[in-house]
Amino acid sequence: MTTGPAPGDDDPAAGEELPAVAPQLRELRRRAGLTLEAAAARARLSPAHLSRLETGRRQPSLPLLLGLARTYGTTVSELLGETPAAADPIVRAGGPGAREADGWTYWQAGGSGRGMQALRVHVPAGRGQGELVRVHPGEEWLYVLTGTLRLHLGESEYLLEPGDSAHFDSLTPHRIGAATAAGADLLFVHTLLQSSLAGLCLGGATTDRR
What we know:
Elements: H1 22-31, H2 36-42, H3 47-54, H4 62-72, H5 76-79, E1 98-101, E2 104-108, E3 116-123, E4 139-146, E5 149-153, E6 156-160, E7 165-169, E8 174-178, E9 184-191, H6 197-202, E10 207-209
Antiparallel strand pairs: 1-2, 1-10, 2-3, 3-9, 4-7, 4-9, 5-6, 5-8
Helix pairs in contact: 2-3
């Protein structure tokens, strides 16, 4: 299949204010394991035009940058060689407010934009035993702070006291609930992967509580 030039291919002024992206374009294409022809076809460009972009003879317009970012599974910022700001590693007490979902209350205990989510969670009494069993890709780790936690893993049931912890594959059918009248408090860490936070461990819509 012959891919013709994309709109703006012949506009010599397209993207002239943007920084040079040639080194990033070449590196990202090679990292993706794509030939010049294959990458051009995916980006709906002619191979000749993509070659000019990679050698610095042409600068891409913003629409071209967006298309190339999708082709290589990256961001426009990375294409432009920008270094993202380092995430703050500290979460201070009194930071993000408590949130509630289906009677559970949780507080952020880790930074955003990571491959895992860390939470401090309060599980009220009477919650969890009648809920849907969860099964999803990833791993979960929890540490009981106060109260007694009831953990169902597959066909087994465990009672966890303060100081106890559990680390398990989330593909194992599981659910948790409080076994004490005052509920239970725990630290909870899970890998994000394919599911949203609410769908993974809390269920239902969330509401802010500050």
